[in-house]
Design brief:
With about 550 residues, the protein is of the alpha/beta class. It contains 21 helices and 14 strands. The longest helix has 15 residues. Bound molecules: iron/sulfur cluster and zinc ion.
């Protein structure tokens, strides 16, 4: 199917015809009477042989409601919502694509399409929306919010995920304009420069609770840290791809493992959340070398989140020629499932595995695995083996109501380079995660960031409390299962920082969460929110580290 055909089909699916409206009305009645959603949809096939989509069903629900033909029914809406997973962690992600632009990288596995930013294909689900809106950030954000609202999703807590090639390679005036326009859309069209938009967003209806960009390790230096903070960035996605210099060179990554190590250390020292991309099946790798490569991730890198993107052979990437010469072989689906099932149970409990495959339509894949449901295949294999993945994603409570008194407070401590990380979490009796906080205690040899707010500070890099549609500030308004979880995590972090001799706590707050921290004793710094924490003079090794901060870090 051609791209325009795909887009046309996508558009058609969005429009509610009289036929679809009639089918939706019947299906809604059956679902209300207790029938399972997909069964009800299938029992009313459309004339073209297809069935109604869930989004059309939700749109029909709203139409009938507005016309007074249907009484409001929250339970029914809950059942028919499209992809309820999208907001289960309490936050709705809105993806925005930057314009086509060259990338300084020359990676041989990376596809090139002149219509798209480097590495994206026009028919990838998220990317298609960017193309449809001519990469205009305002239109992309505004239309996404409208669409989410139409299907009944909460849109008060928005994480902006900016995708497209290498963010840091774009001109800075473009970057600033792009982020400002995203905020303008969140703020309902209000005018103002970037910092004015950020200020408006603090109390806007669609608050920004996270801002993510993707870049290369060799673009990260001290200047870049400050710039990203100025834009409001809280999380950085970076391609590590491999932790073997030979493999990096064979695939023309253009940077070394050491450079990745430095970039991760810098980002961590500046409080950013770090998402690494890791690619098995690169040119020169074998399933066995990939297993070894993966284990290296948990020494000096320790990403907070990980995307496993098995290398996919695409016709518009340089790797295609290598394959034609017979020098590259893509793994089969079975090999990949085997490999991922081997490595997944070894993932530490502080890391979240966001993906195990990239969402590329299989028609683009020349040879090798074409299944995009690899995650399910791996899950089946893990169940067969009787093991399970313990990553954050696999342990999230997923919208279940939790009684706060059953939760256990856990503090997982792990060293990363010169820093000591604390993954403080609330865990249910059956080992599910109800919320967590990432606290980073920089050591004497942690890299100098040059950021004034962070002098002598312990860093809160993330606070996350799970629950569907938990409104910003709902904690104080009393969303039963969440009362105080965030506040209690903050108190615990403060206690640990103090016990280690730190006098200051800094948090990398997304613009829309600033008020939350201000209400909890933090003050506005230049680029972070900070709180002074009094030192108790009980002497321990940790005190030494914190006091170093007070008197300046030895170099
Ligand atoms: S750095 Fe990323 S976007 Fe650039 S060529 Fe390499 S893989 Fe593609
Ligand atoms: Zn997992």
């Amino acid at each position: 199917m051609s791209l325009s055909e795909r887009q046309q089909r996508w558009q058609t699916r969005k429009t509610l015809t009289p036929e679809k409206r009639a089918a939706a009305r019947l299906a809604l009645e059956q679902i209300r009477a207790g029938m399972e959603v997909m069964r009800a949809l299938r029992s009313h096939p459309l004339a073209d042989g297809g069935v109604l989509s869930k989004s059309a069903l939700v749109a029909a629900y709203h139409e009938l409601l507005a016309a007074g033909e249907l009484a409001e029914d929250g339970e029914l809406l809950q059942k028919i919502r499209m992809k309820p997973m999208r907001t289960l962690s309490g936050v709705t992600t809105v993806t925005v694509l930057t314009k086509p632009y060259p990338c300084p990288g020359k990676c041989i596995f990376c596809p090139t399409d002149v219509r798209m930013p480097k590495s994206y294909l026009p028919d990838e689900p998220g990317a298609m929306r960017g193309l449809e809106h001519h990469f205009d950030p305002y239109a992309q954000v505004a239309s996404r919010i409208t669409a989410l609202e139409a299907v009944g999703h909460p849109t008060d807590k928005i994480e902006l995920l900016i995708l497209g090639g290498t963010w840091s390679a774009y001109r800075r005036d473009y970057q600033e304009w792009f982020v400002r326009r995203c905020f303008e859309a969140l703020n309902g069209g209000a005018e103002g420069n970037l910092s004015e938009q950020q200020a408006i967003n603090e109390t806007a209806a669609h608050r920004n609770v996270g801002l993510v960009i993707e870049t290369r390790p060799d673009e990260i230096d001290r200047k870049e840290l400050a710039w990203l903070r100025r834009l409001g960035v809280t999380k950085v996605q970076m391609g590590a791809q491999s932790l073997d210099d030979r493999i990096l060179a064979m695939n023309q990554r253009g940077h070394t493992v050491e450079r990745t190590r430095q970039a991760v250390a810098l980002l961590r020292a500046a409080g950013f959340k770090v998402v690494l991309h890791w690619m098995p099946n690169l040119h020169g790798a074998t399933p066995q070398s990939d297993r070894e490569d993966f284990s290296r991730l948990w020494n000096d890198f320790c990403p907070d989140e990980l995307k496993i993107y098995p290398n996919q052979l695409l016709a518009n990437a340089e790797l295609y020629e290598v394959w034609q010469r017979g020098e590259f072989r893509p793994y089969t689906t079975e090999e990949l499932v085997e490999l991922i099932a081997d490595i997944k149970p070894g993932v530490p409990r502080y890391c979240r595995i966001n993906r195990v495959i990239r969402d590329i339509p299989s028609t683009n894949v020349v040879e090798g695995n074409k299944r995009t449901s690899l995650r399910q295949d791996v899950l089946v294999e893990l169940t067969r083996r009787g093991v399970r993945c313990q990553c954050v994603r696999c342990r999230e409570v997923r919208g279940a109501t939790i009684a706060p008194e059953v939760l256990r407070l856990d503090d997982l401590v792990y060293p990363v380079g010169a820093a000591e990380e604390h993954f403080i979490s609330f865990v249910t009796p059956d080992d599910r995660l109800a919320g967590f906080l990432r606290l980073s205690l920089p050591g004497a040899d942690s890299p100098e960031t040059g950021l004034a707010d962070l002098q002598g500070a312990a860093l809160i890099r993330e606070v996350h409390v799970y629950g569907q549609a938990l409104a910003v500030g709902a904690e104080s308004a009393g969303a039963a299962q969440h009362i105080g979880l965030g506040t209690r995590l903050l108190a615990q972090a403060e206690e640990i920082a103090r016990a280690h001799g730190f006098q200051k706590l800094a948090v990398i707050a997304a613009v829309g969460t600033r008020r939350y921290y201000l209400q909890r004793g933090f003050e506005r710094g230049e680029l972070y929110l900070v709180k002074q924490v009094a030192v108790r003079f009980t002497f321990c090794m940790g005190n030494l580290r914190g006091l170093r901060g007070k008197f300046g870090r030895p170099k």
